Amino acid sequence: MAIAGSSEHENKFHNAYEKDYLKHQGSENEQAAAAVELIGLYHLAQLVTIVGEYLQEGKSSLTRIHVKLDRHHDQALLAFEGQQNPFLAHITDLLWIGCRELIQNAIWTHVAHLSETTQQFVKSLTDRRRSDPVLELWPSQQKDSYVKVM
Questions:
Q1: What is the pTM of this model?
Q2: Strand partners, 19
Q3: Which of 32, 34, 73, 112 is an S-S bond match for 25, by CB 3.0 to 4.6 Å?
């Protein structure tokens, strides 16, 4: 099961481990169930990856981020509910809600409409080389007056 958007090296890595993992799951039915579960877990990983990239870079539009999060949430739910795994379906909902909240509180969400100078300042605040990068704003900081002062 090659993962779309992954590098060729990552695909080879995933394929090697997936085949070995699935081979040890028992019958063909058990292997198929495990493969569907892996697909669901892939979609959960995508939720985290999308949010992480947005928190660091802020390059995508809020609408595009929400569409991606919703799509991966739906696909993960489809996989887990199809396998009758209510625990992972519940974890999927919780992770999705948390990811949407992180996006809503991200500093990028609140400065996207501001000047290029402000954008550069925020880029310096979120830089991964900082010992304490600023990735999100508290509710009191999200008020228009505070963000405009930045």
A1: 0.76
A2: none
A3: 34
Q: At what angle do helices 62-82 and 28-57 cross, to 10 degrees?
A: 160
The residue segments making up the domain with residue 87 are 1-105
Token representation of residue 134: 């600023």
Residue 2, token pair as written in the block: 């090659």
Same domain, 101 and 112: no
Same domain, 98 and 112: no
Distance CA 43, CA 128 (A): 25
Q: How many CA atoms lie within 13 A of 7 on its CB side?
A: 3
pLDDT digits (tens, 9 = 90+) for 120-145: 887 777 777 888 877 766 666 666 54
Contact 77, 45 (CB under 8 A): no
- Bridge partners for 136 per DSSP: 106
How many alpha carbons fall within 13 Å on the CB side of residue 149? 6
Residue 141 DSSP class: G
Q: What is the DSSP string of 81-129?
A: HHTT-HHHHHHHHHHHHHHHHHHHHBHHHHHTTS-HHHHHHHHHHH-TT
- Helix and strand counts by DSSP (H, E) for the chain: 7, 0
